[in-house]
Structures are given as C-alpha cells and as structure tokens.
Amino acid sequence: MSNRTKFGLLGKNISYSFSRKYFSEKFEKLGLKEYKYGNFDIPEIEEFPFLLYHREDEYRGINVTIPYKEAVMRYLDAIDEDAKKIGAVNTIKVTDDNKLVGYNTDYYGFQKSIEPFIKEHHKNALILGTGGASKAIAYALKKMNIDYKFVSRKVDENMFLYSALNEEILEKHTIVVNCTPIGTHPNIDECPNIPFQFITEKHLFFDLIYNPEETKFLSEAKKRGAAVKNGFEMLQLQAEKSWEIWNS
C-alpha cells in the first residue's frame, strides 16, 4: 500500500473544494510530501471509470460530493453496510487488489456535530432537500431516535411541500436541517422558502453549507432565538473519518 500516494475528490464544478485544501494541508502537517490530492471534476458520472482506468494502483482514496453520491455506487465493487442503508457514498477506498469499496462518513460527521446541541424537546426534524446528503442526515437522525420528514418541491405523500409548512408543523418539528445548496456563496441572499415567523428559541437550525459561515437560513433563524450550526465541523469530522478508513 505504500506506493499509493494519490487521493481525490469526485464531483461537478468543485473548484471551491474544501477537501483538496483540507487534505493538502493535512499532508503537509504530517510531512507526507509524496501524497497528492486532486479534483476529479467531471460533467457526467460515466467518465468516472475512465479516470481510474490504469491508475487504480496509484490511488488510495476518493471523496465523493454533489451530484455523484448516489450515481457512483454502480461503479463500486463493494459497499459498506451503513452506506448501503443510506443509499449514498461519499468515501471510496481503493484496496490492495484494486477493488473500490464505498462508505458514507457524512452521517457520522453530522451526528457528532449536532449531538451537543440536542435538547429534550428536539424530537422531530425537517430535512430540506432529498439528495444524497439528505439521506445521510436521515440515517443519523434515525440513529438518534429523532423522527424526521423531508421537505421538497415534489409532491410525495411521505414529504411536506414547502408551501404546506405552517405554524403547526414548525411547532412540532424543532430541528430544521438544510441539505439544499440554496444560500451557498456567491448566492448568499438566497434562502430555502420556509415561514421563519414561526421559529422560536426552541428551534435548532443546521445548515450543511459552510460558505458563507452564516447563511441567510441561519441568520433568519438566529434572529428569532433559534440555536444555529453550520456544516464546517461536520465536513472536518467526515474528512477525518475518510482518512481513518483509507488507512485502516
């Protein structure tokens, strides 16, 4: 395994990438001069196998981000039990015999990051968005015995429509997690369309976005006394978990 010194991030339009900066700085701190972390920025997931072809023995690990956390699964040789249940992969380990094994460290990062904020009355959550990240959030909440409902623009009997959110729903669901990209830099004036007038100091708002540090979603909730947390610590925790997996 010692000759495997390459790592990467698979995604689309990822020049802003947290992972590349994070791991490049980590390698520097650890004195791992030969280690490299690059971006696989591809327009279609179908290009993924060609990227790795003939180069698997150089790679040790790959992170996966929007929009490929679900689509990448069909190219993997094995999938960890948690990732299978979640239905999304954000970490790939390349084994000694060049097999690609998928894991999910998002749920771990989210759970560890939100746990210190959970109070007795936080029994129900709203998850905004239905992509790969939201599945990991749902899995973590389930592990924490917190009931949840997805909020979407699509009509589905198991979800709330944004337009259906009212005082009664928000009074019951005191955790609100934003898994959409709405409000990410540079679109910092945008915000998921929820009725903030029903938010109180009983609420806990978590935004997976970390740039800007305080999104409009968080600042609107904070104005009304809610506890707020952005996604930066979650990202760090899931990255460290990936590192652990690649080196285990």
From TrEMBL:
It comes from the Bacteria. One of its GO terms (molecular function) is shikimate 3-dehydrogenase (NADP+) activity. Pathway: Metabolic intermediate biosynthesis; chorismate biosynthesis; chorismate from D-erythrose 4-phosphate and phosphoenolpyruvate: step 4/7. It comes from Lutibacter agarilyticus. PANTHER family: BIFUNCTIONAL 3-DEHYDROQUINATE DEHYDRATASE_SHIKIMATE DEHYDROGENASE, CHLOROPLASTIC, SHIKIMATE DEHYDROGENASE. Pfam families: Shikimate_dh_N (PF08501). One of its GO terms (cellular component) is cytosol. Keywords: Amino-acid biosynthesis, Aromatic amino acid biosynthesis, Oxidoreductase. Residues 9-92 form the Shikimate dehydrogenase substrate binding N-terminal domain. InterPro entries: Aminoacid_DH-like_N_sf (IPR046346), NAD(P)-bd_dom_sf (IPR036291), Shikimate_DH-bd_N (IPR013708), Shikimate_DH_fam (IPR022893). Gene3D superfamilies: Leucine Dehydrogenase, chain A, domain 1, NAD(P)-binding Rossmann-like Domain. This is Shikimate dehydrogenase. GO terms for biological process: aromatic amino acid family biosynthetic process; chorismate biosynthetic process; shikimate metabolic process.
